[in-house]
Amino acid sequence: MSSSPIFFGVYAPQTSNSGSARLQAQLRTWLPVLVCVSLIAVESTSFLGTDRTSEPLQRIAETLFGYDVCVHWKLLYHLIRKTGHFVGYGMLSLVCFRGLWIALPRHVSRLVRQLRAHGLALVVTFLVASADEFHQSFLPNRDGQFSDVLLDTCGAMALGLLLFLAMQAAGRKKQAQKQLRHRVKIS
Length: 187
Fold this sequence. Notes:
The chain has 187 residues and is mainly α. The chain has helices at 5-9, 19-43, 50-65, 73-103, 110-136, 146-186. The chain is extended, with a radius of gyration of 21 Å. The two termini are 24 Å apart.
């Protein structure tokens, strides 16, 4: 059973012995991970701390939903920030999974390869989240919180689980189609 061409086929490393082709394949594989980590690093600066982002976001919310949003702004802003953690690190985990899925050897079963890629993506996400929160603990207007690391890791687990289930369903569908074609050939 092959990888989904929508997600993985376009970026799959080409089999070539030239150094340039190998480098390009590695860049296609790992550049999305580098971009995600870079975005996290930029968002982790003191310039994008709560004290600088709350007011502009509140103005946008007031424009969209009216001034009643001010009554619950602290709660809404907290939910916006935590949802950003959850989704952002979930996306990092998916991008890491993609890179690992491409890079891991194909001689093992699809399920073993998938579980390894998910497990390693989860570890990478946990390490990046930990480094991010550690870095924030040194900034004057930010604070590092282990609860955010746990939230980030939960986002990675949730989106990873959704991808795992989708890949399992796609694999079962492909297997069923293969069996159906085989039965048609026999008849």
